[in-house]
Amino acid sequence: MKNPLKRPMNEEKVLKKLGIKDFRHLSKDKVVEFISMIPDMDPEVAKAAINQFPEFANTMKSIMVDYKSEIEKALKSNDDSLKACYNASESILKSLDRMLENDDLTYEEKMKIIEKMQEIQQMINEKDTENKKFIRDIVSIAGLVVVAIVGASATLLGGDLKLPKNKE
């Protein structure tokens, strides 16, 4: 929550915190930091910064494209890892299944093999649950980033992001 007694940051403080001479030197890396500072800024300072940084909209779009690309890479890497795990598990399960076909095995030996198969199935289930959590986390983080950027941009442009109250 914003401290009502805290004075909004002026241009000089914002520039110093960003480590730049003026807002024309606002780089792509600094834009994210700039956006995170908006709630603490004097609204006029934020608007002036945008006016001095004509590429703001393109930079925001570029950041979102880069972020999307990073998410896609993470999901692809996760998918590849998951497939490798499933393939290895499937291979082991097939081998154990072939072992069960051996009529010379005792009941106890067959039960041991079945237990191993159940362990592997449990590991697959755990990996699936872990994967779903990973995807849920990625989607949540992406949503927060989008909301933060849209919110900050709307604030800069004087928008009102009040959500309608749920009528019960």
Radius of gyration: 27 Å
Major sheet: size, sense and barrel closure?
none
In what range is the share of β-strand residues? under 5%
Number of helical runs? 5
Which geometry do the CA atoms define?
rod-shaped
Task: Return the structural class.
Answer: mainly alpha
Tell me the span between the first and last alpha carbons. 27 Å
How much helix, percentage-wise, in residues?
Answer: over 70%
- As for the number of domains, it is 2
Question: Helix and strand succession?
Answer: HHHHH
Low-confidence stretches: none
Overall pLDDT metric:
82
- In total, the number of strands is 0
Structure, described:
The protein is mainly alpha-helical and 168 residues long. It folds into two domains: 11-54, no CATH class; 63-156. It has five helices and no strands. It has helices at 11-18, 28-37, 43-52, 56-100, 107-156. Helix 4 packs antiparallel against helix 5 (107-156). The longest helix is centred in the last third of the chain and has 50 residues, at 107-156. The two termini are 27 Å apart. The model has no long low-confidence stretch (mean pLDDT 82).
